[in-house]
Amino acid sequence: MQFFAKSDDHPMNFMHALNAAWHDRNSLLCVGLDPDPARFPAHLRGQPDAIFNFCKAIVDATADLVCSFKPQIAYFAAQRAEDQLQALIAHIHDAHPTTPVILDAKRGDIGSTAEQYAIEAFERFKADALTVNPYMGRDSIEPYLAYADKGVILLCRTSNPGGSDLQFLDVGGEKLYERVARLVSQEWNQGGQCALVVGATFPGEIARVRELSGDMPLLVPGIGAQGGDIEATVRAGRTAHGDGLLINSSRAILYAGSGEDFAQAARRVALDTRHAINVHRHPAP
Description:
The protein has twelve helices and ten strands.
Protein backbone atom coordinates (compact mmCIF):
# COMPACT_ATOMS: atom_id res chain seq x y z
CA MET A 1 0.00 0.00 0.00
CA GLN A 2 1.27 3.48 -0.87
CA PHE A 3 0.39 6.57 1.11
CA PHE A 4 -0.32 9.98 -0.30
CA ALA A 5 -1.34 12.92 1.84
CA LYS A 6 -3.59 15.52 0.33
CA SER A 7 -1.67 18.30 -1.38
CA ASP A 8 -4.05 21.09 -0.41
CA ASP A 9 -3.45 23.02 2.78
CA HIS A 10 -5.66 22.30 5.75
CA PRO A 11 -7.14 25.65 6.83
CA MET A 12 -7.17 25.50 10.61
CA ASN A 13 -6.24 27.96 13.31
CA PHE A 14 -4.94 25.74 16.11
CA MET A 15 -6.07 27.88 19.02
CA HIS A 16 -9.54 28.47 17.57
CA ALA A 17 -10.00 24.76 16.87
CA LEU A 18 -8.77 23.82 20.33
CA ASN A 19 -11.17 26.20 22.05
CA ALA A 20 -14.06 24.88 19.95
CA ALA A 21 -13.17 21.27 20.75
CA TRP A 22 -12.97 22.00 24.48
CA HIS A 23 -16.54 23.25 24.44
CA ASP A 24 -18.28 21.47 21.57
CA ARG A 25 -17.06 18.04 22.71
CA ASN A 26 -16.91 18.83 26.41
CA SER A 27 -13.42 17.38 26.42
CA LEU A 28 -9.94 18.19 27.70
CA LEU A 29 -8.64 14.79 26.59
CA CYS A 30 -5.77 14.53 24.11
CA VAL A 31 -5.05 11.05 22.78
CA GLY A 32 -1.38 10.40 22.14
CA LEU A 33 -0.63 8.21 19.12
CA ASP A 34 2.51 6.24 20.02
CA PRO A 35 2.22 3.12 17.85
CA ASP A 36 4.37 0.18 18.94
CA PRO A 37 3.94 -2.71 16.47
CA ALA A 38 5.04 -5.21 19.12
CA ARG A 39 1.86 -4.39 21.04
CA PHE A 40 -0.55 -4.47 18.09
CA PRO A 41 -3.36 -7.02 17.93
CA ALA A 42 -2.30 -10.21 16.17
CA HIS A 43 -4.38 -9.59 13.05
CA LEU A 44 -2.42 -6.39 12.28
CA ARG A 45 1.10 -7.66 12.88
CA GLY A 46 3.25 -7.99 9.80
CA GLN A 47 1.03 -5.86 7.60
CA PRO A 48 3.00 -3.20 5.71
CA ASP A 49 0.36 -0.59 6.60
CA ALA A 50 -0.23 -1.80 10.17
CA ILE A 51 0.79 1.47 11.84
CA PHE A 52 -1.57 3.53 9.73
CA ASN A 53 -4.46 1.10 10.16
CA PHE A 54 -3.95 0.78 13.92
CA CYS A 55 -3.84 4.55 14.48
CA LYS A 56 -6.68 5.24 12.04
CA ALA A 57 -8.93 2.81 13.92
CA ILE A 58 -8.11 4.50 17.24
CA VAL A 59 -8.71 7.95 15.74
CA ASP A 60 -12.04 7.04 14.19
CA ALA A 61 -13.23 5.40 17.42
CA THR A 62 -12.34 8.33 19.68
CA ALA A 63 -12.45 11.54 17.60
CA ASP A 64 -15.74 12.76 19.06
CA LEU A 65 -14.33 12.39 22.59
CA VAL A 66 -11.09 14.36 22.29
CA CYS A 67 -9.85 17.92 21.97
CA SER A 68 -6.78 16.84 19.97
CA PHE A 69 -4.59 14.00 18.78
CA LYS A 70 -0.85 13.90 19.40
CA PRO A 71 1.22 11.58 17.21
CA GLN A 72 4.77 11.09 18.50
CA ILE A 73 7.09 11.24 15.50
CA ALA A 74 9.71 8.89 16.95
CA TYR A 75 7.33 5.93 16.92
CA PHE A 76 6.79 6.41 13.19
CA ALA A 77 10.36 7.30 12.23
CA ALA A 78 11.82 4.31 14.10
CA GLN A 79 9.71 2.04 11.89
CA ARG A 80 10.50 4.05 8.73
CA ALA A 81 6.82 4.91 8.64
CA GLU A 82 6.87 8.68 8.08
CA ASP A 83 4.65 8.13 5.02
CA GLN A 84 2.08 6.50 7.30
CA LEU A 85 2.30 9.46 9.70
CA GLN A 86 1.70 11.85 6.82
CA ALA A 87 -1.26 9.80 5.67
CA LEU A 88 -2.64 9.58 9.21
CA ILE A 89 -2.60 13.36 9.70
CA ALA A 90 -4.23 13.78 6.28
CA HIS A 91 -6.92 11.29 7.32
CA ILE A 92 -7.63 13.15 10.56
CA HIS A 93 -7.96 16.42 8.66
CA ASP A 94 -10.22 14.82 6.06
CA ALA A 95 -12.45 12.68 8.30
CA HIS A 96 -12.38 14.82 11.46
CA PRO A 97 -11.63 18.31 10.12
CA THR A 98 -12.23 20.21 13.36
CA THR A 99 -9.81 18.07 15.40
CA PRO A 100 -6.34 19.64 15.77
CA VAL A 101 -3.24 17.49 15.41
CA ILE A 102 -0.15 18.11 17.56
CA LEU A 103 3.08 16.68 16.17
CA ASP A 104 5.10 15.65 19.21
CA ALA A 105 8.69 16.07 18.02
CA LYS A 106 10.25 18.36 20.67
CA ARG A 107 12.39 20.11 18.09
CA GLY A 108 15.12 22.48 19.25
CA ASP A 109 17.72 24.17 17.08
CA ILE A 110 18.68 27.58 15.80
CA GLY A 111 18.38 29.62 12.62
CA SER A 112 18.04 27.87 9.30
CA THR A 113 17.80 24.43 10.92
CA ALA A 114 14.76 25.51 12.94
CA GLU A 115 13.25 26.82 9.70
CA GLN A 116 13.62 23.35 8.18
CA TYR A 117 12.02 21.71 11.20
CA ALA A 118 9.11 24.13 10.86
CA ILE A 119 8.74 23.21 7.18
CA GLU A 120 8.82 19.53 8.11
CA ALA A 121 6.10 19.87 10.74
CA PHE A 122 3.78 22.39 9.14
CA GLU A 123 4.27 21.91 5.39
CA ARG A 124 5.31 18.28 4.99
CA PHE A 125 3.22 16.70 7.75
CA LYS A 126 0.70 19.57 7.95
CA ALA A 127 0.45 19.37 11.72
CA ASP A 128 -1.59 22.05 13.46
CA ALA A 129 0.86 22.39 16.36
CA LEU A 130 4.34 21.24 17.28
CA THR A 131 6.13 20.55 20.56
CA VAL A 132 9.38 22.52 20.81
CA ASN A 133 12.31 22.69 23.22
CA PRO A 134 12.90 26.28 24.42
CA TYR A 135 16.45 25.69 25.71
CA MET A 136 18.12 27.61 22.85
CA GLY A 137 16.07 30.76 23.39
CA ARG A 138 13.64 32.99 21.56
CA ASP A 139 15.40 33.15 18.19
CA SER A 140 15.19 29.35 17.96
CA ILE A 141 11.39 29.57 18.38
CA GLU A 142 10.70 32.35 15.90
CA PRO A 143 10.70 30.13 12.76
CA TYR A 144 7.74 28.21 14.20
CA LEU A 145 5.92 31.38 15.26
CA ALA A 146 6.16 32.59 11.66
CA TYR A 147 3.28 30.19 10.88
CA ALA A 148 0.56 32.39 12.35
CA ASP A 149 -2.21 29.77 12.55
CA LYS A 150 -0.05 27.05 14.08
CA GLY A 151 0.43 26.20 17.74
CA VAL A 152 3.88 26.16 19.33
CA ILE A 153 3.94 24.08 22.52
CA LEU A 154 7.07 24.57 24.60
CA LEU A 155 8.53 22.21 27.17
CA CYS A 156 8.29 23.76 30.63
CA ARG A 157 8.00 21.23 33.52
CA THR A 158 8.22 17.74 32.08
CA SER A 159 6.70 14.61 33.60
CA ASN A 160 9.90 12.56 33.91
CA PRO A 161 11.76 12.43 37.27
CA GLY A 162 14.99 13.63 35.67
CA GLY A 163 13.34 16.86 34.59
CA SER A 164 14.28 18.31 37.98
CA ASP A 165 17.98 18.04 37.11
CA LEU A 166 17.70 21.27 35.13
CA GLN A 167 14.15 22.57 35.45
CA PHE A 168 14.52 23.23 39.20
CA LEU A 169 17.78 25.15 38.92
CA ASP A 170 17.70 28.63 40.42
CA VAL A 171 18.03 31.36 37.79
CA GLY A 172 17.99 34.79 39.36
CA GLY A 173 15.60 33.91 42.17
CA GLU A 174 13.20 31.71 40.23
CA LYS A 175 13.32 28.12 39.06
CA LEU A 176 14.18 27.52 35.42
CA TYR A 177 10.73 26.14 34.60
CA GLU A 178 9.20 29.28 36.12
CA ARG A 179 11.44 31.43 33.94
CA VAL A 180 10.30 29.49 30.88
CA ALA A 181 6.63 29.95 31.82
CA ARG A 182 7.12 33.65 32.37
CA LEU A 183 9.15 34.26 29.20
CA VAL A 184 6.76 32.33 26.98
CA SER A 185 3.59 33.88 28.37
CA GLN A 186 4.84 37.46 28.72
CA GLU A 187 7.35 37.91 25.90
CA TRP A 188 7.24 35.13 23.30
CA ASN A 189 3.48 34.75 22.85
CA GLN A 190 2.78 37.95 20.96
CA GLY A 191 0.76 36.12 18.32
CA GLY A 192 -1.25 34.09 20.84
CA GLN A 193 0.11 30.80 19.46
CA CYS A 194 2.00 29.38 22.43
CA ALA A 195 1.24 26.67 24.96
CA LEU A 196 3.32 24.92 27.61
CA VAL A 197 4.06 21.31 28.53
CA VAL A 198 3.65 20.56 32.24
CA GLY A 199 3.62 16.99 33.56
CA ALA A 200 0.67 15.56 35.48
CA THR A 201 3.16 13.98 37.87
CA PHE A 202 3.80 17.42 39.39
CA PRO A 203 0.44 19.06 40.24
CA GLY A 204 2.10 21.69 42.43
CA GLU A 205 4.14 22.86 39.47
CA ILE A 206 1.05 22.79 37.23
CA ALA A 207 -0.59 25.25 39.62
CA ARG A 208 2.51 27.45 39.61
CA VAL A 209 2.70 27.46 35.81
CA ARG A 210 -1.00 28.32 35.63
CA GLU A 211 -0.37 31.21 38.01
CA LEU A 212 2.47 32.51 35.84
CA SER A 213 0.93 31.92 32.41
CA GLY A 214 -2.66 33.08 32.83
CA ASP A 215 -5.06 31.20 30.57
CA MET A 216 -2.40 29.84 28.23
CA PRO A 217 -3.13 26.23 27.19
CA LEU A 218 -1.18 23.56 29.04
CA LEU A 219 -0.40 20.21 27.45
CA VAL A 220 -0.27 17.75 30.34
CA PRO A 221 1.24 14.30 29.79
CA GLY A 222 1.61 11.78 32.58
CA ILE A 223 -1.83 10.42 33.45
CA GLY A 224 -2.63 6.78 32.79
CA ALA A 225 0.52 4.67 32.41
CA GLN A 226 2.73 7.29 34.08
CA GLY A 227 0.51 7.47 37.15
CA GLY A 228 -0.48 11.15 37.22
CA ASP A 229 -3.59 11.94 39.27
CA ILE A 230 -6.47 13.25 37.18
CA GLU A 231 -8.24 15.16 39.95
CA ALA A 232 -5.04 16.88 41.12
CA THR A 233 -4.12 17.72 37.53
CA VAL A 234 -7.46 19.28 36.66
CA ARG A 235 -7.79 21.23 39.90
CA ALA A 236 -4.25 22.61 39.52
CA GLY A 237 -4.43 23.48 35.84
CA ARG A 238 -7.99 24.40 34.89
CA THR A 239 -8.82 27.99 34.07
CA ALA A 240 -11.77 29.86 35.54
CA HIS A 241 -13.76 28.68 32.51
CA GLY A 242 -13.00 25.01 33.22
CA ASP A 243 -10.72 24.56 30.23
CA GLY A 244 -7.11 25.45 29.35
CA LEU A 245 -5.81 21.86 29.47
CA LEU A 246 -4.91 19.17 26.96
CA ILE A 247 -4.60 16.13 29.22
CA ASN A 248 -2.77 13.48 27.27
CA SER A 249 -3.23 9.75 27.58
CA SER A 250 -1.45 7.40 25.19
CA ARG A 251 -0.73 3.80 26.17
CA ALA A 252 -3.71 3.39 28.52
CA ILE A 253 -6.04 4.12 25.60
CA LEU A 254 -4.09 2.69 22.66
CA TYR A 255 -3.57 -0.71 24.27
CA ALA A 256 -6.80 -1.02 26.22
CA GLY A 257 -7.64 -4.10 24.14
CA SER A 258 -5.55 -6.70 22.35
CA GLY A 259 -8.11 -8.31 20.08
CA GLU A 260 -9.90 -7.32 16.90
CA ASP A 261 -12.14 -5.05 18.99
CA PHE A 262 -9.12 -2.97 20.14
CA ALA A 263 -10.60 0.27 18.83
CA GLN A 264 -13.84 -0.24 20.74
CA ALA A 265 -11.83 -0.95 23.89
CA ALA A 266 -9.88 2.25 23.29
CA ARG A 267 -13.14 4.17 22.96
CA ARG A 268 -14.42 2.83 26.27
CA VAL A 269 -11.26 3.93 28.10
CA ALA A 270 -11.27 7.30 26.36
CA LEU A 271 -14.90 7.83 27.37
CA ASP A 272 -14.12 6.90 30.98
CA THR A 273 -11.07 9.18 30.99
CA ARG A 274 -12.99 12.12 29.59
CA HIS A 275 -15.65 11.61 32.26
CA ALA A 276 -13.04 11.37 35.02
CA ILE A 277 -11.57 14.67 33.83
CA ASN A 278 -14.91 16.43 33.51
CA VAL A 279 -15.95 15.58 37.07
CA HIS A 280 -13.35 18.10 38.24
CA ARG A 281 -13.45 20.69 35.45
CA HIS A 282 -15.64 23.35 37.00
CA PRO A 283 -14.83 24.92 40.36
CA ALA A 284 -17.51 24.59 43.03
CA PRO A 285 -19.52 27.82 43.48
